[in-house]
UniProtKB/TrEMBL annotation:
Alphabetized PANTHER family for the sequence: RWD DOMAIN CONTAINING PROTEIN 2, RWD DOMAIN-CONTAINING PROTEIN 2B-RELATED
Protein's recorded name: RWD domain-containing protein
TM helices/strands, residue ranges: none
Lineage of the organism: Eukaryota, Metazoa, Ecdysozoa, Arthropoda, Hexapoda
Domain RWD: 20-142
InterPro entries xrefs: Phi-like, Prp3_C, RWD_dom, RWDD2A-B_C, UBQ-conjugating_enzyme/RWD
Pfam short name (any one): Prp3_C
Length: 313
C-alpha cells in the first residue's frame, strides 16, 4: 500500500488540474449550450477520490463544446480526459459536425494530435483551453487542409495502382442498458455516417451490431465507448478479408443490407411509454436474428437463455 502512495498522490494532482481547468473553461464558455457535461457524477467521483472518500475511479472526465465555427452550423468538440492527463497522457479531442464527412473528422483528429505533440511544450499543466482556442482560430484552414489531403489521396486510384485488401468486420456489442436519447442519436448518426449496417436495440439490455470495413467499425467503437455506460463490451468480433475493390463480396457478407436501424422488438407497444422502457420480446428478437442469418449469436449474447421465450428484465 505504501508503495502506491506516491502514485496516488500524483494521480490526485493530475485530477485536480483537470477539475480546475474545467472550472476555468466553464467561466469562459458560459453561454447556454457552449460547454456541457453529460454526467456530472464523474465530477463527484473525481472529487471523492481526491479527498480520499473513495479509492475507486469509476469514470473519466469528458465534456463537449458546441461552438458556431461554421456559417449557420454549430460544431461539437468532444473532450475525453484520461486519468493521467495532463502530464502523462494526452486528451482525446474529436470534432463532430453533421456537415463534415467522418473520414475528414478522423483527419482533423490526427491534426489535433500532431498540434499537441509539436506545439504544446509545457504538458505539466492542463492545456485543453490552448487546443480549443487553436481550433477556433484556425478552423477554416484546418478544414481546407484536411479536404485537400483527401483529394490528393484519391488521385492514385485512377492510375491503377495496387491497393491493400479490405477487412470486413462485424461487431456485436452488449451493454447493461441504453436509455439516453443523446447516446441513441450518437449511435445512429455515427453508424450511418460511417456507412455501417446493422441495428441498435435500446433498453435493458442494449444490443448493438455494426458491420462494414474494419476501419469504420473500429472508429464506431472508439466513438461510442467513451460515452457513459454502466457496462459495455464487445461480445463477438467477426472478420473476413476481402480483395481490394470487392464491393460485391463486401455486400454479400453483410447480414443487414437495409442499412442501420434502431429496433425495439416489443410485442405490445404502449404508445404512452418510452421505447427504452418496453420489455424486449425474446421471441421477436430470435426471429429477427434467424431472418438475418445471425442465429449463432444467441449463445454469445445470452448463453443458454437465448432459447427462452421470455421478456428481458
Amino acid at each position: 500500500m505504501d508503495e502506491q502512495a506516491p502514485h496516488k498522490d500524483r494521480q490526485k494532482k493530475e485530477l485536480q488540474k483537470q477539475l480546475d481547468e474545467f472550472q476555468m473553461l466553464s467561466a469562459i464558455y458560459c453561454n447556454p449550450g457552449e460547454l456541457r457535461v453529460d454526467d456530472y457524477g464523474c465530477i463527484d467521483n473525481l472529487n471523492s477520490y481526491i479527498s480520499g472518500e473513495t479509492d475507486r475511479l469509476t469514470t473519466k472526465l469528458d465534456y463537449r463544446f458546441e461552438l458556431p465555427l461554421l456559417p449557420d452550423q454549430k460544431v461539437q468538440i468532444l473532450v475525453e480526459l484520461p486519468h493521467r492527463y495532463p502530464a502523462q497522457e494526452m486528451p482525446r479531442i474529436v470534432i463532430r459536425s453533421a456537415v463534415i464527412p467522418r473520414d475528414q473528422e478522423r483527419r482533423l483528429t490526427d491534426r489535433i494530435v500532431r498540434y499537441i505533440e509539436e506545439e504544446v511544450l509545457e504538458r505539466d499543466e492542463a492545456y485543453v483551453l490552448q487546443v480549443v482556442g487553436w481550433i477556433q482560430d484556425n478552423f477554416a484552414e484546418l478544414l481546407a487542409a484536411t479536404a485537400e489531403r483527401k483529394e490528393s489521396k484519391a488521385c492514385p486510384r485512377s492510375t491503377g495502382a495496387t491497393t491493400s485488401p479490405i477487412v470486413f468486420e462485424r461487431l456485436w456489442i452488449y451493454s447493461h442498458h441504453l436509455k439516453s436519447k443523446m447516446k441513441r442519436q450518437t449511435i445512429i448518426k455515427t453508424a450511418r455516417d460511417l456507412r455501417l449496417t446493422g441495428f441498435s436495440r435500446p433498453g435493458k439490455p442494449a444490443i448493438i451490431c455494426v458491420e462494414g470495413q474494419q476501419a469504420d467499425t473500429q472508429e464506431f467503437w472508439r466513438t461510442i465507448k467513451p460515452l457513459k455506460w454502466q457496462k459495455i463490451q464487445i461480445k463477438l468480433c467477426e472478420t473476413e478479408t476481402v480483395a481490394a475493390g470487392g464491393e460485391n463480396e463486401m455486400a454479400a457478407l453483410r447480414h443487414f443490407a437495409a442499412g442501420f436501424r434502431e429496433e425495439l422488438f416489443c410485442a405490445d407497444m404502449d404508445e404512452d411509454s418510452d421505447a427504452e422502457d418496453q420489455p424486449m420480446s425474446m421471441s421477436l428478437f430470435m426471429k429477427f436474428l434467424d431472418k438475418h442469418r445471425c442465429g449463432y449469436i444467441k449463445k454469445e449474447l445470452f448463453g443458454f437463455q437465448g432459447a427462452i421465450d421470455a421478456p428481458a428484465s
